[in-house]
Amino acid sequence: MRFERRRTRAGLAAAAALPLVAGALALGAQSATADQPGGRQLLSGTKPAWATASADKGATADASKLTLRVYLAGRDSKGLAAYAQAVSDPKSALYGHYLTAAQAQARFGATTAQVKAVTAWLKSSGLTVTGANQHYLTVTGDVAAAEKAFSTQLHNFTNGGRTYHAPAATASAPASLNGAVLTVSGLDNAPKKSRHDDTLPPPGAAFVNAGPFSSYYGSNTNKSLPSAFGVQAPYAIKGYTGEQLRAAYGAGSYTGKGVTVAITDAYASPTIAGDAATYASRNGGKAYKNGQLSQVLPGDYNSTEDCDASGWYGEETLDVEAVHAVAPDANIVYVAGASCNDNDLLDALTKIVDHHLASIVSNSWGDIEEHETPDVAAAYDQVFLNGAVQGIGFYFSSGDAGDNVASSGTKQVDTPGNSPWATSVGGTSLAVGKNDTYAFETGWGTEKGLLSADGKSWATPAYTSGAGGGTSSLYAQPFYQRGVVPNALSKANGGKDKMRVEPDIAAVADPNTGFLVGQTQTFLDGSVKYGEYRIGGTSLAAPVIAGVQALTQQARFGIPIGFANPLIYSQYGTSAYHDVTDYPFGPQTVSEVRVDFANGENASDGTITSLRVLGRDASLSATRGYDDVTGVGTPTRNYVDGFRRH
């Protein structure tokens, strides 16, 4: 039974004094305005937007079975948000005064009395409590029991040509619980197919870059090919190494020593340890020390077919190898979700917070905002808030489909990076020059035009992919974006209120100027072996920024950065950032040539030559100042040292 939203890999392929409170907790929390008749408090956002009167097909059968999660608000949700802001804001007297996990639970977590009261209410309604922890209760039961508990009726609604059940009115909890319930998820079932006791599949199909390549940007051009925009476009690089990325983003002598970075994805590559070690030895990287790379795995996996489990192996590989390349002495702990569904990914994030496994968390996955339900958004925000008060920061890829119009038909941002309590990482096309010098960046947005049959011209380029960004429809503008994000972006949705805009910061993401990774793959002849290929996406940008943050934490003598956005925005407009634009050379358009094997692996079926135009990200643009492709910009050599003082 579906009670979570499926996530995809992102890169393969309030009050004036407390401005974040409204954006974080009003979604899915109890109504702060009035009780319903009969002493009830609304659990806002539990009725999905698609559950409309025109789509209503009548009541759901009472005997249908549900599995729900009832999230606990804790003893002081407003105090939690206020403290999270205070310890994260460099202007606050409480900046950096983090709590331990035990202190946070004692101060803000659910009490034993609250858990008992919520349990008793659920049982009295006919629901069965099958699991409980300090964050939520898992319950099962039929529709009739759920309707009784949450004082709403479940109806069947058409949505996208299919029929799902959902609350016909906003769910509620008894006012006598005094706000102990944050929200409930699982009252709608759109869409998910869950399987139990699944095993992980073998590595996915191999991909090999064809070449010719440039060893650094612009090092290799073919003058027999047609020019592009009046200049000769160079061949794409083979794939940047850690040495090149460290030089581009100002690592200096810092290596991340003494810092731990956590990575979350779904599932776990069975060959990650060997692949990571082989890649480092082949590409000049530092060898892993014993215990430097560890994994925290669930007891079992589910939904492996629905989530394309083997496709996530490459995601973990990219994330691990990118963090190690940028911060070679940082410890890496990989925390796997049991599937790509929200509940399992929330559990992975919660493990990191509850056990303080790391202070920097890289997450290369997400979904479009229209699929975000406010109940689940509230659950994510609560994890981020609990992390913030403990000095833990979460970094999310901003997405790989630009404004999402081409992929979804609607201009929108990605989630969970839309949360004001997460750092959204956008993407660039990066040019590293000779001797590892930083040459330039554009916003990542790619148009592709094939070489004509006679080899004399390029087809008109068409959009393929680009860094996600834009204006949220769910979250109000957080305090740290005030005075930085222009009104043209914060009010882009047409309303009177300023809204949250993504991303916050950026790094290399374009797969045509991407990172070289090494992974065990399945080749066309059936062999399963190690191979290397160039890859990108904001799935690369997120771990690169996480690695840079590890360097920064080391420079701060090990003091955690925590929730980074207030600090990131406090340095806006300084030499800490490259102010990335789509046209680094004035009106000149930048492009490069890429050659691919037609079958993705070898030349037996020929090759395909194409022109890749840079800095063309759907309706999004990288401009001077803050923009919705690269945020405040990308780190310079002054970033790490500059943040050392804060």
UniProtKB/TrEMBL annotation:
Q: Does the keyword Hydrolase apply?
A: yes
InterPro entries in the record: Peptidase_S8/S53_dom, Peptidase_S8/S53_dom_sf, Peptidase_S8_Ser-AS, S53_propep, Sedolisin_dom, Tripeptidyl-peptidase_I
On whether Protease is a keyword of this UniProt record, the answer is: yes
Which residue intervals define the domain Peptidase S53 in the entry? 239-646
Matching Pfam families: Peptidase_S8, Pro-kuma_activ
Keyword terms of this UniProt record: Calcium, Hydrolase, Metal-binding, Protease, Serine protease, Signal, Zymogen
Please give the biological process terms from Gene Ontology that the record holds: proteolysis
Please name the GO terms that the record assigns under molecular function: metal ion binding; serine-type endopeptidase activity; tripeptidyl-peptidase activity
Q: Which cofactor does it need?
A: Ca(2+)
Signal sequence segment: 1-34
Q: Which family does it belong to?
A: Belongs to the peptidase S8 family.
Q: What is this protein called?
A: Subtilase family protein
Species source reads Actinacidiphila rubida
What high-level taxonomic lineage is stated for the organism? Bacteria, Bacillati, Actinomycetota, Actinomycetes, Kitasatosporales
